[in-house]
Amino acid sequence: xxxxxxxxxxxxxxxxxxxxxxxxSTIEFPYxxxxxxxxxxNILFNRxxxxxxxxxxxxxxxxxxxxxxxxxxxxxxxxxxxxxVQRGEVELTQLGQRIVDPSTELAARAEAFLSVPLxxxxxxxxxxxxLPEAGGLENAMASLGVSPKQxxxxxxxxxxxxxxxxxxxxxxxxxxxxHVQHLNELNERTVRDDEEEATSESDELVQPAPVxxxxxxxxxxxxxxxxxxxxxxxxxxxQWPLEKRxxxxxxxxxIFSLIYPDDGSASIRVTLDE
Length: 274
Description:
Elements: H1 3-12, H2 15-19, H3 34-48, E1 51-53, H4 54-60, H5 68-79, E2 83-86, E3 89-92, H6 94-99, H7 105-115, H8 117-126, H9 134-143, H10 151-164, H11 181-200, H12 224-230, H13 242-259
Antiparallel strand pairs: 1-3, 2-3
Helix pairs in contact: 1-5, 3-5, 9-10, 11-13
């Protein structure tokens, strides 16, 4: 499957515009959101290493490679910069590799969001300013090249992806790129420390306890960052060193500051009293 075949799916949705004398979109945007594209990246990495045929990927989604639904999903993953598609083969990009790695996922989400031409243009136009309401935002997208017939779909996918990438941390009327580099560095240090301890100590390793959606009161409804955080909690009754608890709590504080707006007048720092 080539990039040209990806484009044919999205332009097919705009045939009615062309037949009625309206223009088709001249700027790229996906009809699916970022989370759907990350699902494809995770399938490629966890099921196939990093590369698979489009038939194999579609099969994992319970779809067929020739269907319009699957081709739109694959096209979105390509626009977000997570995969490359060549001659029926789908392969993770470097950005795709980073987005499936918990230690670099947060920054990769932000980069993937800005990889979409339409989203990048909207961010450049409104960074540091209020976003217009739905109608105004759709008209702004139309001025950038989105077909008037498709501007509502473009806006809806944009808003979902912006939330999933952390750009609405200060409210849905402000598009702010998240400052996640410090959090990625913290996660990398945590992973590195854990690996060093595993090789130098003979203590029993702490295994994460699975979090059931029933017990959590609907974990699937939580922000993806919070879901990932909860899944790293160790099993009850297991040993959990105080230093690791501090790291976990500080990571939680950083995530909360990212996804819950505040006035920025203070920050939370977790320390260990001795």
